[in-house]
Specification:
It contains 8 helices and 16 strands. It is α+β, with helices and mostly antiparallel strands. The chain folds into 2 domains: 122 residues, Probable inorganic polyphosphate/atp-NAD kinase, domain 1 (Rossmann fold, 3-Layer(aba) Sandwich), CATH 3.40.50.10330; 174 residues, Tumour Suppressor Smad4 (Sandwich), CATH 2.60.200.40. The C terminus is likely disordered.
Length: 323
């Protein structure tokens, strides 16, 4: 077994990366493990490094620890998909760091020893075109908040960057007009504040947009919120952050679906945040790739079990073809 640590110098604050690299060298040397450290030099470099390194050599297995944010982790997973004997973990030193929020004892993700002692679990991915989303994708208000947060992250700490991004969006109130099809049926067609499709529960620096998700249930969770006034949206933000927004009271302004596939037609080229990184699409054909990659769960961590699906959701998802 060889352990590869892929550090993204552009993620998070530089001091974190220096401290982490020192810890990696110390722990791995003390344990006598076979390891390598690689520093990325450009966007998509993590993906290319993982792909070429994972495909080379024979036997023994390879573990890749992506040291950065959700975008860096996304690159690593896209590079590893479909290659036997390869697993990916994440040491979250980026801005949002949302994938790790799906697990208990989250502090262990920063513990190099706990990472080395971790075990693998199979996780789903959301496939779009020839690529994969690991955690969540979103368009509208929250996408622009991520865009603004990215612009601020060098000057403002991660959580505060997202809050500042949200504040800027509250002034502009950018929306999106998706037509969403599930099972060939149009289920959403309205001007929305946001639309989000998730594999994990959290995105945007801790917003629990998919409170009933599981990382390996073979399904994705989709929600869209109608365009509302700034005041009404401001009232909704708190419950959207803690995952309690799926209620009878909010049902008139909310669509929430649990599905295996979906098509989102934006009608025009639109900014979409995919694992926190901005891409531009006019249409997305989405499907769940069940158990598509091996994730390294640090020792002492376990997937968080979410509550049963709300009856508000089961009422919305009444057509068996959409489940």
């Amino acid at each position: 077994m060889k352990h590869y640590f892929v550090l993204n110098p552009a993620a998070g604050k530089g001091k974190e990366q220096i401290t982490l690299e020192e810890s990696i060298k110390k722990v791995c040397t003390e344990r006598g493990v076979d390891f390598e450290i690689y520093h990325t030099v450009a966007p998509k470099d993590a993906e290319e490094y993982v792909r070429r390194t994972a495909a080379g050599g024979i036997g023994g297995g390879k573990r890749f620890y992506l040291c950065g944010g959700d975008g860096t982790f996304n690159e690593g997973v896209n590079g590893a998909v479909g290659i036997d004997g390869v697993s990916c973990g994440v040491i979250p030193v980026g801005t949002g760091n949302d994938f790790s929020r799906n697990f208990t004892n989250r502090d262990n993700f920063w513990d190099v020893a706990a990472q080395l002692d971790g075990t693998e679990m199979k996780c789903d991915l959301i496939k779009y075109g020839e690529r994969y989303c690991v955690n969540a994708l979103n368009a509208g208000f929250d996408c622009y908040a991520a865009k603004y947060a990215s612009e601020l992250k060098r000057k403002v700490p991660g959580k505060l960057a997202y809050i500042a991004g949200i504040a800027k969006c509250l002034v502009k109130m950018p929306g999106v007009s998706p037509k969403v099809y599930i099972g060939g049926n149009k289920v959403i067609d309205k001007y929305s504040v946001l639309v989000c499709v998730a594999n994990g529960s959290y995105y945007g620096g801790g917003f629990k947009s998919a409170p009933y998700s599981a990382l390996n249930d073979g399904k994705m969770q989709l929600n869209a919120i109608n365009m509302v006034s700034r005041l009404d949206f401001a009232k909704l933000v708190s419950s959207y952050k803690n995952g309690t927004f799926v209620t009878e009271k909010n049902a008139p302004i909310l669509d929430y679906r649990i599905c295996k596939e979906a098509c989102i037609d934006f009608g025009t080229v639109t900014a979409v945040a995919i694992d926190g990184e901005i891409e531009y699409h006019d249409k997305l054909d989405l499907s769940v790739a069940h158990d598509a990659f091996e994730f390294i769960v640090p020792k002492g961590c376990a997937p968080i079990e979410n509550p049963p699906v709300s009856t508000v959701v089961t009422d919305m998802t009444a057509d068996p073809a959409t489940v």
